[in-house]
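Saturday, quiet lab. Running sequence design on the structure tokens for the scaffold JK sent over.
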């Protein structure tokens, strides 16, 4: 099957035309980090959701129903299963898709933690959050963001990193000339 990926051309401030090929090679070592991160977090969420559904909880029940030390109800269990499956899709696809998915879901988990924190002990707490759920959301969010950003951002990226090369084309051009000449 032929790839339909089209590289994006960016003009750098130094006047050098840079072609950003944002697709990582299948065997690139960063791909493994993105896949493992998505898989681990997906497995945790899937297990939590399935265990929550097996307890025959009400869909919007706000009692003291716990699974693994976290409060839950039917809605939170179904949501956890859906997000866990989405992370498994990211794990299967891998590459930049998994990285971006990890980052986006990580940000959403952190935001969900803040929203859950604001809804504690209110009538709007339809996902049955308690403080342990809020902390879990923060931890999962930060872990997903770390897995997604690994190798994409940082001050000490290696020069052969595709994201470093895209941001520093002058270093790439110099290294290519040195290798050729």
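Result came back. Writing it out in full:
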């Amino acid at each position: 099957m032929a790839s339909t990926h089209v590289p994006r051309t960016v003009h750098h401030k130094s006047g050098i035309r840079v072609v950003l090929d944002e697709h990582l090679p299948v065997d690139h070592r960063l791909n493994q980090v993105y896949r493992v991160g998505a898989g681990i977090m997906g497995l945790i969420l899937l297990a939590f959701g399935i265990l929550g559904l097996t307890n025959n909880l009400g869909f919007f029940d706000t009692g003291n129903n716990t699974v693994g030390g976290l409060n839950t109800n039917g809605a939170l269990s179904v949501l956890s299963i859906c997000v866990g499956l989405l992370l498994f899709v990211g794990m299967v696809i891998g590459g930049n898709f998994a990285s971006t998915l990890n980052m986006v879901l990580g940000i959403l988990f952190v935001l969900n933690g803040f929203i859950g924190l604001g809804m504690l002990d209110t009538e709007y707490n339809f996902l049955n959050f308690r403080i342990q759920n809020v902390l879990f959301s923060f931890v999962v969010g930060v872990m997903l963001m770390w897995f997604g950003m690994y190798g994409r951002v940082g001050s000490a990226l290696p020069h052969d990193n595709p994201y470093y090369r895209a941001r520093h084309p002058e270093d790439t051009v110099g290294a290519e000339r040195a290798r050729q000449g």
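Notes for JK: Helices lie at 29-54, 74-93, 95-119, 131-149, 162-167, 169-180. Residues 29-152 form one domain. Ask whether to fix the surface positions before the next round.
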